[in-house]
Design a protein that fits this description.
By secondary structure, the protein is mainly beta. Helices cover 0% and strands 50% of the residues. The radius of gyration is 13 Å and the shape is globular.
Length: 121
């Protein structure tokens, strides 16, 4: 089972961009990779996923057109490019690995520790 480490979070102004990285300790070719986030006082929510080969991607409506998930299986890395950030995007962002294309957290069995993203006004 791989271990996942996120990085790239930070403080950014509204309208700015960040790129989060999720590096795995081993190969991720056989995993669907998802991104989730947890805002203060809220439940953790699904943000998007990318299929094993990178062809299929799905996002929640609030981030469509602003966020892009990509992966580089040769580098065991998944990315979350976040553009036109809004204060509502403030959250701890987690990457996760699973076997199936799914929005449910229960379908992901390996999680990173999270990286904080804060969007100021």
């Amino acid at each position: 089972q791989v271990q996942l480490v996120e990085s790239g979070g930070g403080l950014v102004q509204t309208g700015g961009s960040l790129r989060l990285s999720c590096v795995a300790s081993g190969g991720i070719n056989s995993y669907v990779m998802g991104w989730f986030r947890q805002a203060p006082g809220k439940e953790r929510e699904f943000v998007g996923y990318i299929s094993k080969g990178g062809v299929i991607r799905r996002y929640i409506d609030p981030v469509k057109g602003r966020f892009t998930i990509s992966r580089d299986n040769a580098k065991n890395t998944v990315y979350l490019q976040m553009n036109t950030l809004k204060p509502d995007d403030t959250a701890v962002y987690y990457c996760a690995a699973g076997d199936l294309l799914a929005e449910s957290q229960d379908r992901y069995n390996t999680w990173g520790q999270g990286t904080q993203v804060t969007v100021s006004l």
